[in-house]
Amino acid sequence: MTHSIIRRLLLPVVVLSTVTLSMLVFFAGGSSGAADPATVVASTVTDAQATTKASLPPAAYQTGRENSGAANSTDQVFNDKGQLVAYGNSDMVYTEAPSQLIPMGQALYAQNCASCHGNNADGVPAKDTPGSFPNLRGLGSGTIDFWIESGRMPAADTTAVQANRKQSRLTHEQALAVTAYVASLSPATPFIPTVRNLDTADTSDGFSLFALNCAACHTVTGGGDALAAGTYAPSLRKIPATQVAEAIRTGPGNMPRFTGNLSDAQVRNIVAYVTGNIQHPVNPGGLGLGGLGPVAEGFLGLALGIGLLTLIAFWIGDRT
Amino acid sequence: MSADDRTPVSLSTAGPDDPHMQPLARNPQRMEMAIGLAMVAGIAAIIGFGVAYWYNADPWVLGATLGGGLSLLGFGITAWGKYLMPQGPFVEERHDLRGTDEERDVFAAAVVQRGGGILGRRKLLAGLAGLGLAAFGVVFAFPLIRSLGPLPGKTLDKTNWRKGTYLVDQTGREIHVDDLAVGGIVTVFPKGKEDTPEGQAVDQTVIIRIATRDFTTRPGRETWGPQGYVAYSKLCTHLGCPVGLYEQQLELLVCPCHQSMFDVTNGAWPNFGPAPRPLPQLPIYIDGRGYIRAQSDYTEPVGPGFWERS
Amino acid sequence: MTDTAKKPDASAFGPVGKALNELDDRLGIAKGGRSLLDKIFPDHWSFMLGEIALYSFVILLLSGIFLTLYFVPSQDVVTYMGSYAPLHGQHVSAAFASTVDLTFNVRCGLLMRQIHHWACVIFLGAIVVHMARVFFTGAFRKPRELNWSIGTILLILGIANGFLGYSLPDDLVSGTGLRIAFSITESIPVVGTYLSFFLFGGNFPGTAVIPRFFTIHVLLVPLIMLGLVTAHLFLLVRQKHTQFPGKGRTEKNVVGAPMVPVFAAKATGFFFMVFGVTALLGGLAQINPIWQFGPYDAAKISYAVQPDWYMGWLDGALRIWPAWEWTGFGHTIPLEVTLPAVILPGIVFTLALLWPGLERKLTKDEAMHNLLDRPRDRPKRTAFGSAYFAFLAMLFIASSTDVVANFFHISLNAVLWAMRVLVILVPLITYPVAYALCKELQAAEGGKRKRANVVTRTAEGEYVAVPAEQRPGDGHHELDPEPVPDFIDFDGADPSAPGVRQVGR
Predict the structure, then answer these.
(1) CA distance between the termini of chain C
(2) Of A73, B27, B252, C266, which shows the fewest CB atoms inside 10 Å?
(3) Mean pLDDT of A266-271
(4) Smallest Cα–Cα separation from C315: which of C166, C479, C139?
(5) C153-193, pLDDT tens digit by residue?
């Protein structure tokens, strides 16, 4: 609601976008402004007149719906070369990986990624395993950042059905550098998302959307579970907000892509629910037993309940 | 010493000095102290429960005080019975349940004579009484059962999808051809039914984009997958759970309840699990403004099998 | 006649005696009263398993009454505005909203809900364990067949009522269970659609199912169960307990502790301990957190949804059953549902209900039995029971194929196929293994009473071990009963004489 009003107000006032964006950041961003990438980006904008749609990069996962992760969002920020570096709205901001890290990223790419994905990052067709070493061009920095930051890439076992989440081999800066390099080969959206004002998001809407769109695989309490043919839905209990948003927008692996069917406002609400109530569940009733748990509950009830009471009976009664 | 090693005696013959009447505990005074302490602790915990309730404590405090208190009190009472009461064992004679032959004959004779003899003499009346009871039973069952719900009729054969119905998501937003990327899925309802129990339970459909060009999932369905959009009933053909689990690389819809797997590129044919039939596919088209709409209703009943389904 | 005119306060036992006399004047309690106080209860620990079930039932009634005071059995849609923020503004049923309010806003409400649910888990678990004890020791034999059947019906009703109660909060997980229940009812040939429409008041989800299930759950089934529990206990008192063989124990007596005071103290204490353990679980281990599941919405679903454990075996059967739908003559029979969810439980429970009669038929054992078998002495029954339990246990494991696959990081498809095989294979292996085990145990009879080997040295220096003389209770003995012959076979009787028939033993 609010962002559509803002959009209507903002779009005609292209000339004033810099000023308005700064004000928006100031008011909506609140005290966290210093850490907000949009603030950083906004301060680097020098030429507001560069905002022409003709120069927007293609969206890797096409969606025509505005404010749904592609460049056609309410606000766009360009650098002095006229390249789009950030876009978004009051709910989410998508930022390109910083271009000054590209040389560092190129070196890291050659060391860590090129053996599988090829020197030009256009993939290597692997025998009998289509898509094993996919083309990385034109995927958008959000995709690249997710796979590296979640530790799935560089992969530990390239023959595995599904890459496992693990401690990343690269530091945060190195990951960002590789992302910057790969993304620079063929710029595309979505960029790396940052969810704004998580603490004021509508977790109720997020819960409802989570139950409709996410719970079928990740379970309604976010524990994850085994899916078809050796694949699995990972647990959501320790995923940072950015990676939740990245996964929703880019659909890593077997996960569906949520592009035009979820607005940035809806994604923000889902991320708020996941990082809030999924990762910090309200358990007033004692031990959580891993969330969803007739299996755990039954085990506890039979082993502890019946077991303990049987032992008591064993104490009370005769044994012959 | 186990009670098993001792010869059981009858309770009525055992005098107060009989070893069977002595407690099991070697040192009854000390045992009484121990049991008393357990019971005092139990009573304290139960009072603690009252205090915790008064101050509206967390459930775990309530449970711990109540459960701990009752357990300790129960332990004390049980231990009293086990260690400080007559240890026995005592014996009681078991009397035959059956009567004597004479008693049995007298009883059987009465049943047969009064049943067969007296009732049998008035066969008409006995028959009428039986008929009356049967008629009452059958007729009375009608309001008990028939009032419960409507007859199924053709309810299960059709849904609310019609020619030209817009596909909308749960917020009522129409689905546009530009919305979904390949690998995207959204749950849709007939426009106007998205917030009704019926729309959610029966009409629910998933629309998946599996390509960017027109996609034919089965021969004869050439127009059903415009621009790579395919729509399937979200009701599993096994037990009607919502098939909301989509794996985009495997191109499988999986039922979260019993793990039936449906191949979305092949008309949602089941290729694993207990589901016997493919998910019905909804024929759709893209209108001039780019919105996705239904060509017609489903061509077969959605959801699990039932007797009247042909 | 002048005796009855005697003043009742003439009792030598003070005011209590006077009160008892007053009661006896009106109810005649003195005649049977003393023998009731003296009634002997066997002491064996395994006889207390049924008590766990009885006490859990009492706890269920007590906590259930509390819950009915706050629960609103209605499917009317309301907007949740209670104290749990992530549900704010969601459209939920009044049933769901009232359950969440009961959880967060009623003092002790969450504790009572959880005690109720844990008591149910323990109740049904205790019934199963108790039944296993009765089965493997042969306590169901004549004259107690009827009580076995009553107990089996109690188990069926308990499972049904557990499912009904589980469905009432109308949360995402239980609503999925209701959807499955509708489809299972629908799958019954000829009458299925009618039955399901009548039960739910129309096509799923209907508007009537929560209020109806509420009435059935809190009124109808508990009333029937209360009656059956009373009958179960009445028969138990009437027929007296069974007992294990032992010193001074015969078919004609009962050895143990008197009802008052010893058994009464132990039973009262045990009741408190059962209540205590249930309350500890209710306070410390969260069960069925419906606020984390959210309200039911037919289009929403969570993965990894299993029913409570006592329904698990049915869910497992549904998972592994092959897709065998039958169509023909313009009709459909969804056998992949009807067979595992209607026919299979029908067979399982019918077999349990009829087992005493079946065993009597097979063994031709018509005698009264008050002494129990040791399971090893009835290898066939023990092996059959073990195989039966193994079958149900495999079905139960099959209901968590996804959990197994996730835990061991193996393919879900592989786990499902493995379960399809194991459900058949494990019972088939269990039977001979259990049978052989019983025979082994018979051979190694007695535990404490091992037979000594007398070792002697012969003149040639060879050591020879000879088992000592048998003592009563030692050695190998089958308790398979001898069939009673139709006619007495007199030695030397002329078999051709009229009225005399030779009978083979």
Answers:
(1) 63
(2) B27
(3) 93
(4) C166
(5) 999 999 999 999 999 999 999 999 999 999 999 999 989 89
- Distance (Å, whole) CA B213 – CA B225: 9
Separation CA A271–CA A179 (nearest Å):
22
Residue that is written with structure tokens 């592009």 in the block: A259
Residues B239-270, buried b or exposed e (16+ Cβ, 10 A)? bbbbbbbbbbebbbbbbbbbbbbbbbbebbbb
- Helix and strand numbers (H, E) in chain A are 13, 6
Alpha-carbon distance of B171 to A262, in angstroms, equals 11
C-alpha B87/C-alpha B79 separation (Å) is 12
For residue A303, report the phi and psi dihedrals to the nearest 5 degrees. Answer: -70, -50
Lowest average pLDDT, out of A31-35, A261-265, C83-87, C279-283, goes to: A31-35
* SS3 state at C49: helix
Q: Which residues contact A262 (CB under 8 A, 6 or more apart)?
A: A68, A209, A213, A248, A270
The β-bridge partners of A195 are A92
H or E element in which residue B188 lies: strand B185-190
pLDDT above 50 for A6: no
Nearest chain A Cα distance for residue B157, angstroms: 26
Q: In what order do the strands lie in the sheet with A84-88?
A: A75-78, A84-88, A92-95, A192-195
Place A135 in a pLDDT band, splitting at 50, 70 and 90. confident
What's the complex ipTM? 0.91
Q: Is the omega angle on the peptide bond into residue C143 within 30 degrees of 0, that is, cis? A: yes
Do C453 and C465 contact (CB within 8 A), yes or no? Answer: yes
Question: Is residue C478 predicted with pLDDT exceeding 50?
Answer: no
Q: Which of A223, A284, A295 sits opposite C306 (nearest CB)?
A: A295
Structure tokens of C190?
A: 């000829």
Place of tokens 């032959």: B101
Is B250–A254 a contact, with Cβ atoms under 8 angstroms apart? yes
Distance CA C132, CA C128 (A): 6
Listed residue (A177, C172, A311) closest to B75, CA to CA? A311
Chain B closest CA to A85's CA: distance in Å?
Answer: 23
Strands of B1-160, DSSP E: 9-10, 90-93
Task: Specify the residue for token string 């560089």.
Answer: A154
Residue C504 neighbours by CB under 8 Å, 6+ apart: none
How many whole angstroms separate alpha carbon B265 and alpha carbon B232? 11
Q: How many CB atoms lie within 10 A of CB A274?
A: 25
How many other CB atoms are found less than 10 A from the CB of residue C432? 11
Looking only at the bridges linking them, the beta strands covering C253-258 and B281-282 are unpaired
**Identity of residue A286:** G
**Element containing residue A136 per DSSP (H, E):** none
The Cα A42–Cα A24 span in angstroms is 10
For residue A53, name the pLDDT band (cuts at 50, 70, 90).
very low
Distance (Å, whole) CA C121 – CA A297: 9
Classify B229 as helix, strand or coil.
strand
Q: Do B6 and C188 touch (CB under 8 A)?
A: no
Buried/exposed B132-165: b ≥16 CB within 10 Å, e otherwise: eeeeeeeeeeeeeeeebbeebeeebbebbbeeeb
Nearest to B250 among A217, A228, A285 (CB): A228
Q: Kindly report, residue by residue over B231-250, the tens digit of the pLDDT.
A: 999 999 999 999 989 998 88
C197 → closest Cβ in B149, B170, B277: B149
Q: Are B198 and C203 a contacting pair at CB < 8 A? A: yes
Could A260 and B254 be called an inter-chain contact, meaning their C-beta atoms sit closer than 8 Å?
no
**Lowest mean per-residue pLDDT among B278-287, C58-67, C365-374, C437-446:** C437-446
DSSP structure string for C53-66 = HHHHHHHHHHHHHH
| Cis upstream peptide for C211 (omega within 30°) | no
Q: Chain C window 200-239: which residues touch A at a Cβ cutoff of 8 Å?
A: none
